[in-house]
Amino acid sequence: MSTAELSPWDEMPKHLGPWPSPEDREFWAGARRGELRIQRCASCGLHQHYARLLCSHCGSLEVEWITASGAGTVHSFTVVRQNGVPPFAQCVPFVVALVELAEPGARILAAMPTVAPDAVAIGMPVRATFRSAHDPELGFVDFAAADVGSRG
Amino acid sequence: MTRRVCVVGVGLSDGPVTPDMNGLMLEAQAFQRAVADAGLAKADVDGLASAGYGGMHEVMLAEYLGIAPQWLESTSCGGSSFELHAMHAWRAIEAGDAETIAIVYGNNQLSASGRTLGTGGGGGRGVLPHPMGYELPTGLTLVGAYALAAQRHMHEYGTTPEQLASIAVQVREHAARNPNAMYRDPITVDDVLASKLVADPLHKLDCCVISDGGCCIVLTTEERARDLPHRPVYVRGAAAAMTHHSVHSMPDLTRSAGAVCGPKAFAQAGITPADVDTFQMYDSFTYTVLVCLEDLGFAPKGEGGAFAADGNLRLGGALPTNTDGGGLSATHPGMRGLFLLCEATRQLRGAAGDAQVPGAEIAVAHGSGGWLSTMGTVVLGTEPTR
Fold first, then answer.
1. Apex A96 CA angle, A91 and A99, nearest 5
2. Whole-angstrom distance, CA of residue B128 vs CA of residue A77
3. Phi and psi dihedrals of A14, rounded to 5?
4. Which residues of A are less than 8 Å from B161 in CB distance?
5. Spatial distance between the Cα atoms of B204 and B290, rounded to a whole number of angstroms
């Protein structure tokens, strides 16, 4: 696949989000900067995605933003072959994965637009990639195979 | 002594396709039939539960029905809502807060919204507040959420698409015995595997139908039930549990909340899985059935696929499941939890027609809501728990 040409993934309409709140704007703004921003608990040391007031593991209020490595493994995946909503209707088939991040405690659901349906497997090493959203200050986090060049 | 609680009336609306009826009409038709089936008048109903619409739906429904209940319940946690309603109704009648409770649901899902529920039809409309906006931009569908879980189960336990397909095949056999089922022609494992993949590993025939339809059940005290026309069906146990809202936060994709509420309800009822004569299981997808066969203890973890593929779910098998044809083949008007309780009751009355499990004494209804998010188990029996 050419990495230069625009795909339907690059033309996400405004109504598909993101809709940042004061609580999680940092995640979406970080994606626009090319950073995977998640939270780490200073009390138990575990991580979480998405952003919360408290640690979903231990309940502590001592949560802080960190920039994750972007490395992870595929915990599970599906190949979406039917989705009636544009632009996804033009993207099928495509891979969506639940990624276990290298930072303990955190998983993230993400599309993998550059991974072919027959090339994905559970346990596969992946890394975060970033895609611009409609809002010029915000972006989306995708994942790609860990061993190929950066997309876009 | 604690008051015992029984299901005394059940009613189904017309279905599975009713283009001229709205949701309230389907609910009212099922309600009218269930109250008549119970041998009661609507004025006897002093408690009402419903879910699936916006706030205050149960109040609007009460007004539409022309009743003035003193006990209202609107727990809305997806398709399992009605198992939670039954749990709460059981305790309310037991405690004397209500005498006779109707649980009602109806929806013209198919006629109003078509078949798009599972494949993006719910998406792209309006702003999703944090933290609900993390799924939609990935393109994951409702079917895809279940597919993610099924894929992990296949990875960990070697579960196969053929084993998943065998569930759809056996439920279809039961649909053939139900004149009101949406699809009644026999299917094979090969037919399921040859149907279009919607989200790997789930094929079209691994997914429930979308239909119209309504259902109602009526519960009251054992004392009142003695004077009513049907053999009372006792509530013996009922429990609920949840694990997550969105599938990305499911702690273990291969273990559902059924592992908590199933054993809890069985313990209340004083039964083990081996005592269950028929299982009415929310078959939104074949995987929903498979994981709950394990989590409720009908098969060891990881062996649900083999248990299903061995034919245990069919009439005459060890655990006749979804004897009305289930959501996979008969009816699924957006949510199905209440239909499970209706079919369980019919079985225990000995009134399940061509799909009767001979001598059924204990039936389990197990609902699943959301994206394997919320579950409720209700144990019904021809005799009370001793």
1. 150
2. 23
3. -55, -35
4. none
5. 17
Model pLDDT for residues A55-76, shown as the tens digit of each residue = 999 999 999 999 999 999 999 9
**CB spacing of A111 vs B123 below 8 angstroms:** no
**What is the maximum span of chain B, computed from C-alpha positions, in angstroms?**
57
Q: For residues A13 and B124, give the distance between their C-alpha atoms in angstroms, rounded to a whole number.
A: 9
- Match 């189960």 to its residue by tokens: B153
Dist CA A15 CA B213 (whole Å): 32
Phi-psi domain of B52 (left: phi exceeds 0; alpha: psi -120 through 50; beta: other): left
Cβ–Cβ < 8 Å for B196, B204: yes
CB contact under 8 A, A18 and B137: yes
B201-222 pLDDT, tens digit each? 999 999 999 999 999 999 999 9
| Cβ within 8 Å, pair A91-B144 | no
% pLDDT > 90, chain B: 92
* Contact (CB, 8 A) for B249 and B145: no
Give the whole-angstrom CA distance, residue B292 versus residue B283.
Answer: 10
Q: Which amino acid is at B261?
A: C
> What is the spatial distance between Cα B85 and Cα B338, in angstroms, rounded to a whole number?
9
Going by the DSSP 8-state scheme, the letter that residue B134 receives in this structure is G
Q: Which residues from chain A sit within 8 angstroms of residue B144, using beta carbons?
A: 78, 80, 96
User: Which stretches of chain B sit within 8 Å of chain A by CB?
Assistant: 116, 119-121, 123-131, 133-141, 143-144, 147-149, 151-152, 155, 196-202, 246-249, 253
Instruction: Tell me which residues of chain A, numbers 27 to 86, contact chain B at a CB-CB cutoff of 8 Å.
Output: 50-52, 75-85
Q: Do B130 and A50 touch (CB under 8 A)?
A: yes
Between chains, do A111 and B139 touch, taking CB under 8 Å as contact?
yes
Stated pTM of the model: 0.96
Distance CA(B147)–CA(A106), nearest Å, equals: 21
* DSSP structure string for A5-74: S--GGG---GGG-----TTTHHHHHHHHHT--EEEEETTT--EESS--SS-TTT--S-EEEEE---EEEE
For the four alpha carbons of B317, B362, B32 and B208, in that order, the dihedral sign comes to negative
Residue B130 has its nearest CB partner, among A21, A76, A89, at A21
- B135: which residues sit within 8 A by CB, 6+ positions away? A109, B145, B246, B247, B248
Determine the residue of chain B that is closest to A131 in CA distance: B137
Cβ neighbours around B42 below 10 Å, total: 14
- Neighboring chain A residues of B247 at a CB cutoff of 8 Å: 98, 109
SS3 B271: coil
How many other C-beta atoms can be found within 10 angstroms of the C-beta atom of residue B107? 25
Q: Searching chain B, which residue's CA lies closest to the CA of residue A25?
A: B130
Show the tokens assigned to B113: 């919204």
**Alpha-carbon span A48 to B122, nearest angstrom:** 27
* ipTM confidence: 0.94
Residue in A21, A94, A109 nearest the CB of B129: A21
Q: How far apart are CA A107 and CA A56, in angstroms?
A: 12
